[in-house]
Design goal:
Layout (H helix, E strand, L loop, with lengths): L1 H13 L5 E2 L7 E2 L5 E10 L3 E7 L4 E7 L8 E4 L3 E8 L4 E8 L25 E2 L2 E2 L18 H6 L1 H4 L3 E15 L2 E7 L10 E5 L8 E13 L4 E13 L3
Parallel strand pairs: 5-8, 13-15
Antiparallel strand pairs: 1-2, 3-4, 3-6, 4-5, 7-8, 9-10, 9-15, 11-12, 11-14, 12-13, 14-15
């Protein structure tokens, strides 16, 4: 049963990319799911994203990409992305029944699919199809919170902290807001363990890049968000602590 449900989920993820047409009773023609040709029917520019109503010749569907100059009526190409259902854009004050977050749109056919890149909207530092996507190390040095832990300590022994609440004081390096009903905050404190220095925490709070914040969060290991995107270590249920 689990295998059958998994197959259904994969089929649902690929649905907009599998364009099937019948040709006089002949064999069906399937469009390459790694190189989907679309026409931009409508374009909406928001603060962090560009929303595009895509027409693949068989159906229309919404996609979201990093802010880009997309022209209505022009042809573009894209690789598969991540499906969000009932996604609410607070920026647009609009809810999309179904929308695909993509790494971007190309004006030329895609020669090598960018499968190893994280779909925009999903935070980095996870594992996508086995490849690491890393945020660059920042030149920061943050004093740990009293009774707290460092980024290096969590990465050095995640099993020790798994399922536990911890305090961590670090600088906000990058944010991805309003994705999957939460905000994704990249934290660095200047410590590292075996090249790992960027820790992601999810929260319903909004934080500015550059701010030094003391967070309380639950350490979760091997968190699978689907579509092959897995975090070896992530903090969840993040809350900022004041006067720490």
């Amino acid at each position: 049963m689990r295998s059958f449900c998994h197959s259904l989920c994969i089929a649902a993820l690929l649905m907009p990319f599998l364009l099937i047409t019948s040709c006089g009773g002949g064999a069906n023609k399937v469009q390459d799911p790694n190189n989907v040709e679309i026409t931009a029917k409508e374009v909406i520019q928001a603060q962090n994203y560009t929303y595009v109503l895509a027409d693949n010749g068989d159906s229309t569907y919404w996609v979201a990409i990093p802010s880009a100059a997309i022209e209505t009526g022009k042809t573009y190409y894209h690789a598969p992305g991540m499906l969000m259902v009932n996604f609410e854009s607070k920026d647009l004050q609009r809810t999309f029944d179904r929308i695909w977050f993509l790494g971007g749109l190309s004006e030329q056919p895609i020669v090598a699919p960018a499968a190893a890149e994280a779909p925009h909207g999903m935070p980095e530092s996870g594992t996508m199809t086995g490849s690491k996507v890393k945020t660059e190390a920042a030149a920061v040095s943050v004093k740990p919170a009293e009774g707290g832990v460092t980024v290096a300590q969590i990465f050095a022994d995640p099993a020790k902290y798994a399922g536990k609440k911890v305090l961590i004081r670090a600088q906000v390096i990058k944010v991805n807001n309003e994705i999957m009903d939460r905000n994704w905050v990249h934290l660095q404190d200047g410590t590292e363990h075996e090249g790992r220095y960027d820790l992601v925490i999810t929260t319903d709070e909004f934080h500015e890049v550059g701010a030094v914040v003391t967070f309380e969060g639950v350490v979760t290991v091997n968190k699978d968000f689907g579509a092959g995107y897995v975090y070896e270590v992530i903090l969840e249920e993040g809350k900022a602590r004041i006067n720490m």
